[in-house]
Design a protein that fits this description.
Helix 2 packs antiparallel against helix 3. The termini are far apart. The chain has 2 domains: about 60 residues; about 60 residues. The protein is mainly alpha-helical. Helix content is about 90%, strand content about 0%. The chain has 4 helices and no strands.
């Protein structure tokens, strides 16, 4: 089970970060980043499978593949923004964390325009 590995890595990372916060606070943020990076590495294989299945669905639907790429980019921006914001919040800089979340939302909003345009094209071709 993949989730058991992810939980294990997360718990070990939290333990190390907690110990470093008390003993060597300057290394705390690096422990948090390393723990998060290890979790991402563990889940990458599952993510590749999901992306492949999503690609097959897009192929069957006949929708332009650039829309598929746009959706994946939007998902990626959302995850990366959330991760960076959580790191800032963990480090105690919540004002920057909130601004990162706003920036991610604005970026996602702009990235949806080509998708909405493609959706309108598909719907208008059906009518």
């Amino acid at each position: 089970m993949q989730i058991v590995r992810v939980i294990g890595v997360g718990l070990i990372g939290a333990l190390v970060a907690g110990l470093l916060r008390q003993e060597r606070s300057e290394l705390y943020i690096f422990a948090v980043i390393a723990g998060g990076a290890l979790i991402l590495i563990v889940i990458l294989s599952s993510l590749a499978d999901v992306i492949a299945q999503f690609g097959m669905l897009v192929g069957k639907s006949g929708v332009d593949e650039s829309l598929f790429a746009g959706v994946l980019k939007i998902i990626g921006v959302g995850y990366i923004t959330e991760y960076a914001s959580a790191l800032c919040a963990d480090y105690g800089v919540t004002s920057i964390a909130n601004k990162l979340q706003l920036a991610g939302k604005v970026a996602i909003f702009f990235m949806t325009m080509p998708i909405l345009s493609g959706l309108v094209d598909v719907i208008s071709s059906m009518l």
